[in-house]
């Protein structure tokens, strides 16, 4: 996309951003490229209204994971972590196959609650449909709700929301 065609967010007052990194990381499948956390941070900090950027990602003992979280903190993100769970999904020829799992729905909701009276706008980088009740509550409280997603990564619950939530495809917004 040509940079001239990129849109800018119109934020209504103090804004908090919530990044579900596991979700954002998964966007590389449809984008055919990875999202650069530094470029994303620089883009978000270009908005004077953004006062808080939460970066939610599971923590495990793998050296690459520890290094990534350390680098993310150095960029300037407020990093929120908890231990990753490994869920057994199959056993093939005696080989156990595990899936990495670490949802941050509850932590995000708690953090939204903490800043609720100090922010007018909330930006979520996740297409996760589990956030629908939170979005509905924020809309009911007259807060601006913006969901940034990529094609194929927007839950049907969010797709079905017709009023109060602004749904923006990442590629229309930023060149990361």
Automatic annotation (TrEMBL):
Gene3D superfamilies tied to this protein: 5'-nuclease
TM region positions: none
Signal peptide: none
A molecular function (GO) term: RNA nuclease activity
Domain NYN, residue spans: 14-158
Name this polypeptide is given: NYN domain-containing protein
Lineage: Bacteria, Candidatus Giovannoniibacteriota
């Amino acid at each position: 996309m040509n940079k001239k065609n990129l849109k800018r967010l119109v934020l209504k007052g103090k804004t908090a951003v919530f990044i579900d990194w596991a979700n954002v990381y998964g966007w590389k499948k449809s984008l055919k490229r990875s999202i650069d956390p530094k470029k994303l941070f620089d883009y978000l900090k270009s908005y004077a209204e953004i006062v808080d950027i939460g970066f939610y990602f599971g923590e495990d003992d793998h050296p690459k994971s520890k290094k990534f979280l350390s680098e993310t903190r150095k960029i300037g993100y407020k990093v929120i972590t908890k231990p990753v769970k490994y869920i057994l999904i199959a056993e093939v020829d005696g080989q156990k196959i595990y899936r990495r799992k670490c949802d941050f729905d509850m932590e995000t909701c708690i953090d939204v609650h903490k800043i609720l009276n100090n922010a007018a706008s909330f930006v979520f980088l996740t297409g996760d449909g589990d956030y629908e009740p939170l979005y509905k509550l924020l809309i009911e409280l007259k807060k601006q709700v913006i969901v940034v997603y990529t094609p194929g990564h927007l839950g049907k619950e969010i797709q079905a929301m017709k009023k109060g939530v602004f749904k923006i495809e990442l590629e229309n917004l930023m060149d990361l």
